[in-house]
Structure to design on (222 residues):
């Protein structure tokens, strides 16, 4: 079985009937959402899903998963999401799929967060994966210039047509090609205080456990 599918299915064992479940975004989360859809159909699971992107919303609707918006629920029991990099302290980079803002909001209001990753995502230090920074379009070139001066090697994320990529909130993404992040907490503080920055892809101290897909089987790290 594909490692992403393996961890997607494994994570669903933590979902119980009656729960409100945050549904993450990306190719790994896709398998988790598919499994939730199957459990609803074949096992009479009753849950309410809270999606983290338009992409996941479309998939969840197609599967008939009952949904509520983040502002309609009083709490989220568990959120299951993918990640781009995870270090040994469970600090992570997310946003490869440009859904970091909604993902971080949903994770923030969740009692429990599980990340599902294949083993290639586990790294000794964050930073090889470009760090996404979501910015308001107005003034984004100014932020870009500052990030460039600081040596963060920024690039605007573009679509295949060469247009600026717009997030679900209509913002732009600036990816920082840092190679190594020595102090993730300090960098997170720095980025979030830049005017025009909406959010960044450093997800620090936000996950309760990580399910890693390995050839031998899924491994849960707590
Ligand atoms: C989307 C994300 C994804 O969870 C992350 O990019 C991992 O995606 P994939 O499972 O496709 O590798 O943060 O914004």
């Amino acid at each position: 079985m594909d490692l992403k599918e393996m961890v997607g299915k494994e994570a669903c064992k933590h979902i119980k009937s009656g729960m409100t479940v945050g549904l993450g975004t990306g190719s790994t989360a896709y398998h988790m959402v598919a499994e939730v859809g199957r459990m609803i159909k074949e096992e009479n699971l009753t849950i309410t899903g809270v999606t983290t992107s338009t992409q996941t919303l479309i998939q969840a609707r197609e599967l008939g998963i009952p949904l509520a918006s983040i502002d309609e629920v009083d709490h989220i029991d568990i959120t299951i999401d993918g990640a781009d990099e995870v270090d040994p302290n469970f600090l992570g980079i997310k946003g490869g799929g440009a859904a970091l803002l909604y993902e971080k909001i949903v994770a923030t209001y969740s009692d429990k967060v599980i990340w599902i990753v294949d083993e290639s995502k586990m790294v000794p230090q964050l930073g090889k994966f470009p760090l996404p920074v979501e910015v308001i379009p107005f003034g984004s070139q100014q932020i870009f210039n500052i990030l460039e001066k600081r040596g963060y090697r920024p690039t605007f994320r573009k679509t295949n047509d060469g247009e600026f990529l717009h997030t679900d909130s209509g913002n732009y993404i600036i990816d920082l090609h840092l190679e190594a992040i020595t102090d993730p907490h300090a960098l997170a503080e720095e980025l979030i205080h830049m005017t025009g920055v909406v959010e960044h892809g450093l997800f620090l101290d936000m996950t309760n456990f990580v399910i890693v897909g390995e050839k031998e089987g899924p491994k849960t790290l707590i």
About this structure: The mean pLDDT is 97. The chain has two domains: 3-122+204-217, 131-199. The CA atoms of residues 5 and 31 lie 5 Å apart.
